[in-house]
Every structure is written in C-alpha cells, then in structure tokens.
Amino acid sequence: MAKIKSLEELMKIKENAMKGLKMRDSGKKGKIIVAMGTCGIAAGAKDTLRAIVDSLDEKGIEDVAVVQSGCFGLCDVEPTIEVHLEGADPIIYGHVTPAQAKRIIDQHIVEGKVVGDLIVKKGEL
Amino acid sequence: MPAVENTVLICAGGACISAGEKSVKEVFEDTLKKYSLETVVRVVETGCMGACDLGPILVIYPEGVFYQKVNAENAAQIVEEHILKGRVVERLLYKGDTGELKTKPQEELPFFTEQVKIATRNLGVIDPLSIDEYIARDGYFALHKALFEIGPEKVLETLKKSELKGRGGAGFPTWMKWDFTRKAQGDTKYIICNADEGDPGAFMDRAVLEGDPHTIVEAMTIAAYTVGAQKGFVYVRAEYPLAIERLTFAMEKAREYGLLGNNILGTDFSFDLEIRIGAGAFVCGEETALINSIEGKRGIPRVKPPFPANKGLWGKPTLLNNVETYANIPPIIINGGEWFSQYGVEGSKGTKVFALAGNVKNTGLVEVPMGITVRKLIYDIGGGIPGGKRLKSIQTGGPSGGCIPLEHLDTPITYDNLKKLGTIVGSGGMVVMDEDSCMVDVAKYFLEFTVEESCGQCTPCRDGTRRMLEILERITEGEGTMEDLDLLKELGENIMATSLCGLGQTAPQPVLSTMRYFWHEYEAHVLEKKCPAKRCKPLMRVVIDKDKCVGCTACARVCPVNAISGAVRKPHEIDPEICTRCGSCLAVCRFNAISKVSP
Amino acid sequence: MSVVTCPDCENLFAELDRYIDSVKDNTGVLINVLHKAQEIFGYLSEEVQQHVSEKLNVPLSQVYGVVTFYNFFTMKPKGKHQIKVCLGTACYVKGADKIMERLQDELKVPMNQPTADGKFSIHAVRCLGACSMAPVVLIGEDDYYGRVTPDEVSKILDKYRRAE
C-alpha cells in the first residue's frame, strides 16, 4: 500500500470502501456482521461465528461475506449478528447460539425468510 | 415467483399465543388465499415484541403499521382493508397516552430512537480490522482537515465552541487542556490516551477500542499536531486483551497508509504511537499515577501542581485525555463545534455514553444527549427493572461516585446536577440496583475496593479508608453503634479534605452518599440488627415454611454444605449453623416454601 | 534464592532476553518486560526478577517494588487454568460473591493458591468490562462465561477436569 498524501487519495479509498459497506459491485449477495466485543465473546460469539462460517462452507455459499464488528451496544441480547442482504433492510438477530445461527443461514440466507423469533431490530442501527 | 409486496409479522410470543395468535394467523392466511394474495404477502411469526398487554400484535411491512389486539374476526378485515385496498384500519391501531393514533410505535422504541451516536458512531457498523471501512465513514478526513485546511488555532477554536468536556470523570474542558499543553514551553511533548477504564461497571472505552480503534489513532494524531507533540502513548488495562490486539493492528495499518509515523499525509509532521499495558492498579486512572506507570514505576500519584500540561511524562508537557473524549474529536473537527453543542444542555454539551448494568432489562451501551433524565435512561431506554422488582437506587461514578435515589429520578443528567446530588457523572457507568441490594453492603463493597486499591502514599487514604471499612464490617455484622455512624461520617469528610489525589478525595463518596439517602438502612443495621434487603449474611437466615414444604428433597440435594435435613414427603429443615446462606435452595424450591428472613 | 522448577529454563530465559533486547532502547519498559516474563514463566520468581534487573540495569529494589505494587504480577505460581472471577460492581450486584464462594468450596483452595494437583487457581479481578453479562468468569485468557450461576460452577470446571 502506497502512503496517502492527498485528499484525492483518501476520497478514492472512501469511495471504494463505501461500495463494500453498501455491497454494490462487490459481487456479494450480502454480508453477516457478528458483534465481537468482549461482551459478545463472553456470550459465545466465537462459537456463533464459527458456526456461521462452517454452515456457509457446508452449503457452498460464497457470495455472503462474514465480517466482525465491535459491540452493537445491545449487550443484553448477545450474541448478536446483523444480516444484510442486498436490497433489503438489515436485520439484527439476538441470542444467536450456534444452532440458531445455522437456522438463520438455512432460513434467511438460503430461503430468504426472516427468522422472526430472533429479530431484535429491523433497519439501520 | 412474484415479488413479495408485503411482509406481515405476527407476534408469536407467549402472551400473544395465549391471546389467540394462532387463530389470527389462520384466518389471516385463509383470507389471503381467498383473494389469491398468498404469493405476494408473506406471513412471518416473530418472537415476543415486548408489548404483551397489546396482543395479539400484527405488523405489516413495508409501511410498518402496527395493529394491536387483533382477533379472528378483525384479522380478515385487515386483509380486505389494508392489504387489498391499502387503507389503514384505524380502530385497531395503537393509541398513545393521550389517545393519538400511532402507526409505528416500534420505530419509536426509545432504546433505539433516543440515541445520538457520536463517540460510538462506528460501533457495530464497520469492521474494526478494516482501515478502509473507517475511511469510508469519513475516517482520517478530520486529520486531513486539521493539517491542510484549518491549522492548530482553528482546531482549538472548534473544540472551544463544541464545549466538549473530559469524558473520563473530572469533566474538565477539553480545549483548555489542549491549549495549556500547546502553550507550554518545550520542544518535546507527549500525548497520552487514558484507556485504563478502571471504574467497575463502565465499559464504553473497551467497546470503542475494540470496535473503532482508528478513531483513537486519528484523534491522538490531531491532538499531537495541535499541541506540537511527536510521540504518544495509549495506556490500556491488561484486562482488555482484545482491545490491545485491535489497536495494535490499527496502528500498523495507519502507518502503512502514511497516516501515522513519519511525514503524515506527505507533510513534514511526524508522530507515532506506542501501547503501554497496565498491570491492574485502579489508581493508575489518576493522570499523574498513570504517567508514573508509563515511566515503568510504581503507579503512585504526584503532587499537583505542576500539572501534566507543563510537567508530565519524563518532565515534559503532556496532554492526557480518555478514550471517549478522543472518540468525539474527529466528528467535531469535521462538523464543527456548533454541531456538537447543539446536543445537550447548558454546561453539559454534546452526548455521553452510558453503560447500563445491574438490575435493568436492557443492559448495554447507550449514547444519549446530556441532560436526559435518569428516569428516561433507566425506564424508557433501559426498559425498567426485571422480575417485577422495585428500583432502589442507581450507582454512578463507580468507587468515586454515589447513588441516585428514587426521589431524584427526574433529575436531568449534567455534571452540575449530579454533583449537587452528591455523586458524579464519572465515566458513565450506571449500575442499577433493585430492592434486593443492601445499601450498607454496597458501600462496604466500594470501600473494600478502595482499601485494596489505595496506593499507600498518603495517610488519610491508606489508613482512613481502612478504618471506615472496619466500621462498615461491624455494622453489617450487627455489631455497630450509633457512635460508629457519626465517626464514619467524620472520617469520610476528613479523608475527602486531606487526601493527596482524586482516589482518596472521592473514596468516601459511596458511604456518605448512601448515608445521606438511605439513613434508615444504616439505622436498621445498628438499632434493630436487621438487614432490610436480607443481603448481609450475619443478619439473615434462610428458613423453610413447614406448611408449604412437601418434602420433595430438591433443596436437600442441591445444598452444597448439607445443611438441610428431613425425610421424604416430610417438611425439611435448615440448620442455621451449617447454612452458608448461598441461596441455592431458594432457586430450586417449586413450592415457594423457602425464604430469607432478617429478624 | 528460590529455584525455578522448569524443564527448559534456559530456553525460557533466552526467549525473555530476545524480547528485552528488542525493547531495551525505549525508556520505561520495565512493566512491559515484566508482563512478558510472567507470560513466559507463569510467575515472577526472585530469580526472574534478578535477571530482569540485571538485563535492564534497573535496581532490584525497583523491580520488586513494581512487582508488588500491581495486582497483575504474582510471585507465586498459579494453576494451569486460572479462573478469574469478576468482582466489578455489576457482577457484585448480580451475585459474583456467591460464585467466588462456590468455586472455593468446589476446589477447596483459597484465592490465589493453586489446587494440590496444580490444575486450577482462583483469582478475583476488577471489572472485565462485560457488565451486561454479569456475573462473569474468565478461565485462561479466552474462555468467558457470562450470567454464571453458582450451580453451573461445577459443570464449568468439569470441562477442564475432563480435558486432561
């Protein structure tokens, strides 16, 4: 990576990364964000993350990115994940155990059906 | 397959099911089929929406219209009116306190809507390991603006206008600290970030470091440029390994991008950061103790003045701010001081992150404008007290703070208001306590903390807090006298007046504050030898009600010390001599036969 | 002088020296070096402290002073699995003291002392910052347990007992 020296270079990175954040042109259908703060990890977010990655691998789903983020602030319902599919409002799920994570992949990612009983919040945080 | 036009969420929480949700769903789906709408309307059963007294509940998207108290009869009507003709069925809408119709109460949920995220703007939004995503959210644009567009004087002016005060506890105007350090004589200056979040119950700094580490790198670089420093240190608690890992990674990436290190953004300004890891000493949250610790010494506070701005790390001018304070800097530089000061109230501008913990439903981090009332924070945002218990008090400011009792719930949270109540905003930790908390025991807990954490340098703090703890131990064991209470107060006031540093000057606060608002609890311990909350073990017993006990033996099996005896199907008994009052039996009894008593 | 009973002390000291050489030019690195030493040896014996003092050219009295000042440093060996019970305010309000008691009952050791088989030791720590999960127990560096009840204690311990 060359060092940044101007506003233009900074803007360029911003524009590219914006696409990633919004997932346009990224070739991905969507992304799953796992809240990996200490509180999330204390509630088992590491296992949840592993279950998500395993489950996606198992099903050969390659167009969904799995990323980690800091604490959403919804510590009460950890582990939390956000499912962000292109063209749809992001959905935040709470109390996502590895088993529930597999359910979310099966229902939400594969079949496109929101897993109603785990929803914490619909729309942008 | 035709595109789905509507999604209908039906609440299938326990309360709604018992109110007839299943038949509502059936009728709803049948009616959809009748009009051949089943392929374009998706019906989803959701978990409990929380508004159980309004059930069965049904929400129709994309509009998000919220119908309450739906039954089998009017479910068909909703399909015919709302789905088919696009007309909202008004009589089934939720009505507010004053009778006004509310179509979307769920978007008015205070936990989400009351928040204004500035310091925590990127938490949960970006990948903390991606510098590009930080840049996508305007990261490092503030640094660019400071370096190329406005310069140090304007940075100071912007901070002054923002009226940002230190978020670590003391609440000192941030711009003044920066200005003092800028004006201090010397070629070598240092920037320090205090990430030694020692207050038990506060975790916003950890969340920011873990979730948005670049904001600290950027803010400290701006600070260095403004005051003329070349080197900075982030002092992180050893208890936060993940924060250390992510911050280290962020610093490496920033160096790669030319945003940290030599010739930042191609200019001749150079600045670099180093992480220093704390080693578990609460007193290191005090700025001069922290400086000693970075120097590799015992973390004992220095006498002030001289202040760090003039004589800090290795005797050089040093600027010290905490994590949350820094996290506010980049957005303030980008959006201007007035933008920040539009939030909050006179004397306490902007937003503050609060950590809700303890006996409250929605535990978590919330960032809200200063001046919000305690009630709103605990009940609207925090969702109130779980388990049908009553709120007793809210502890703020950790071991340096005090408690806010019920009668002051409507106080707007500002630096001045909380000071008048005998507590502090502190770092923003709010531990909610219900009726099961004993306030004398809580005061004792904090004293145990300060006794252990006192650095031992000055006598009032080292010896005085220990004497106070001894008195509190006597009281909670039922051995206290009324003279003890007078002595406790006198000692506390003396320690506050004569201690060297902030730790000692505030250590008696939890005791004095609980004595001020919960005097009757102290009296009960002393005069009646009674703990009203049944928390102090020497003053309470666990007993089995012979009339209710059916002799199921569940309690006897779970007792870790075998204090419970009794034959099967015969009432059991607890031997108070053996019983450790652990409460395990209380949790397993299904007949409500076991209870705590205080004589 | 206490003797460090480790099979490959030489290698461990060499590892520590490599670290010291890499940071020695920075000022005030004593605490960082002690962190590293404790990570390598598990605890800071007199021998290790003496070694650090000589390598960094810092008086032994100062090294000892720092080691005894900070809660994080220990001069006694710890158990293989260190059980850290958070005693922060939120955890306290939610009954962390009961978890602490139960652990000591189960393992039959007081705080800061390893069990006879050397497998466990119990430590009280200040707020781990996971207050919403209170009460919290951390075993080792990575295994967080949230909303622990006294009755779960034995189940949690079993995991580590069985792992042998």
UniProtKB/TrEMBL annotation, chain A:
Which organism was this protein described from?
Mesotoga infera
- Answer yes or no on keyword Electron transport: no
What keywords tag this UniProt record?
Iron, Iron-sulfur, Metal-binding
What's the protein name?
NADP-reducing hydrogenase, subunit B
Among its keywords, does the record have Thylakoid? no
Lineage at the top is: Bacteria, Thermotogati, Thermotogota, Thermotogae, Kosmotogales
Name the InterPro entries for this protein: Thioredoxin-like_sf (IPR036249)
GO MF terms, alphabetically ordered: iron-sulfur cluster binding; metal ion binding
